[in-house]
Amino acid sequence: MINFEWFRTFKAIYQTGTLTGAAQELLISQPNVSQHLAGLEAYICHPLFERQPRRMVPTDYGKLLYTEVIDAVEKLEKVELDFRNTSAWEVPLTCVGASKEFFQAVIAPRISQSDANFIFEFGDPKALLEKVIRKDMYFTLTTVCGQEKNIVYDPVLEERFVLVGNAGLDDTAFRKAVRKKDNAAAEAWLYDQTWYAYSSDIPPVRRFWQENFHKRPQIKPRFVIPDYDAILKALAAGTGVAIVSDYLVKDYLRRKELKQLWTDAETSSQTIYLAYDKTCVTTRQLQQVKALLHL
Q1: Which domains does the chain have, with CATH numbers?
Q2: How far apart are CA 247 and CA 102, in angstroms?
Q3: Which of 47, 147, 271, 278 stands 20 to 30 A from 167 (CA)?
Q4: What is the pTM of this model?
Q5: Whole-angstrom distance between the N-terminal and C-terminal Cα of the chain?
Q6: pLDDT of 148-166, one tens digit each?
């Protein structure tokens, strides 16, 4: 297997013209320089330099090899230098898991204000939490709160699930039924609407129905879209209803693109936690993530 250090040494010899100069540039011994060059020449089966008393003169093979590899060698050296500089600044590279919707609504507007280096990963909250437990990820945002050893769950926000519809939706009959506390009429009106849902098993809808009608819903969503931001955009542009988290829909309500249909309904809620292994994260990483989340 070829060694990258051989190419680095070859470049130094070519540019300085001597073994001694290459050794000084690379901060290694002259015998090591000679060993690297011998290894490279043996690997490509051609002499790269003509040894003269005070100078190493490139052969035609040496000139050809230099032309072919110099760009790649310098790019790799730059990558190495960049990583060293990052370490020198002591700004850790922090991996954070989150739902795409949470990132877009909460983190994206604040990310440019952070001085940290982040890698974000979107995915299923349970799968992301498993990565934290296996020490494959530093942090994740999750609604699941377990009892695993060394895993800390810090509350980030309490989300409530609200019933919303397109701003132009005629909900006169529904508001009248709610005002008269006529649950049967309100439920019948909801059944007549076009429903958008994140998944076919509609857990937020089922919880909403239990809280307000004390029964299971008999709803089959017309549109199942596994992306809440896409659901809200489609709902704002079309017609229908959905049950979504309040922090995701607040901007749509403020812009009057959507409206909340039952403001005094009983609503379910859940806590979003920042989960991390306290034995894996540094104090600075924790401070940077909490600052990003305004904790």
Answers
A1: 4-89 (1.10.10.10), 93-157+271-292 (3.40.190.10), 159-268 (3.40.190.10)
A2: 9
A3: 271
A4: 0.66
A5: 50
A6: 889 999 999 999 999 999 9
